[in-house]
Design goal:
By secondary structure, this protein is α/β, with parallel strands linked by helices. Helices cover 31% and strands 22% of the residues. It is built from seven helices and seven strands; from the N terminus they run H-H-H-E-H-E-H-E-E-H-E-H-E-E. It has a seven-stranded mixed sheet with strand order 3-2-1-4-5-7-6, sandwiched between helices. The longest helix has 13 residues, at 17-29. The protein is globular. It starts with 6 loop residues before the first helix and ends with a strand. The model has no long low-confidence stretch (mean pLDDT 89).
């Protein structure tokens, strides 16, 4: 571990797994589409792709991606969230780990797509963002995608203000050897406009 508590842990005390799962169960029961992230990612992938869900939480997205034929590994630092994921999909790979030290988990660096949804980037421990992006980029095969979704204002975050701007995030990606391919305002693919409160970004690791 880095020795720093991430912003998610500060907000939840690391005990939010069951409530988080109930929240999305209620949304699904009320008719909401809770698979937007998985649908977005699948559009970028060939069948049977390898996906790393970084900050996988209760496994909602990774489980759906596996259901449509991809091979998914989930990593999260919150054991209460992983307990739900392991219960819901015991045959899938779920790893407890700090994204700032992803290279210590023994993963092969050949993922077709690495996903950091659910405000993973803004909720990292302060000062670790560039390190985490570097670790996520290093897990990609050449030509692979880093897909992120993050709030950019208080209306789209469980925080009073956004700790990361898009410009800062893009700088981290550039330093990690990634190039921006696409940016949307929603997981449905709506166009992003400057000043928007939420951004879905697709960065690529150039093919060698």
């Amino acid at each position: 571990m880095t020795g720093q508590r991430d912003r998610w842990a500060e907000l939840t005390g690391g005990q939010a797994g069951e409530e988080y799962a109930r929240r999305f169960a209620r949304l699904a029961a009320s008719g909401h589409d809770v698979h937007g992230e998985a649908t977005f990612c699948t559009a970028l992938l060939k069948p049977g792709a390898r996906v790393l869900d970084a900050g996988c939480g209760t496994g909602r997205i990774a489980i759906r991606l596996a259901e449509v034929g991809h091979h998914c590994t989930g990593v999260d630092v919150d054991s209460s969230m992983l307990a739900v994921a392991r219960r819901e999909a015991p045959a899938q790979d779920w790893l407890l780990g700090d994204l700032a030290r992803l290279d210590t988990l023994g993963l092969d660096a050949d993922f077709d797509l690495v996903l950091a949804a659910g405000n993973v980037i803004p909720l990292l421990a302060p000062g670790t963002g560039a390190t985490v992006v570097g670790q996520l980029a290093a897990a990609l095969r050449p030509g692979g995608f880093l897909v992120t979704g993050m709030g950019l204002d208080a209306a789209h975050l469980p925080l009073a203000e956004a700790p990361v701007t898009l410009a800062e995030f893009d700088q981290w990606c550039t330093r990690a050897g990634l190039a921006l391919r696409q940016r949307c305002a929603t997981w449905s693919g709506d166009p992003y406009t400057d000043g928007g409160g939420y951004a879905v970004s697709v960065h690529t690791r150039p093919a060698t």
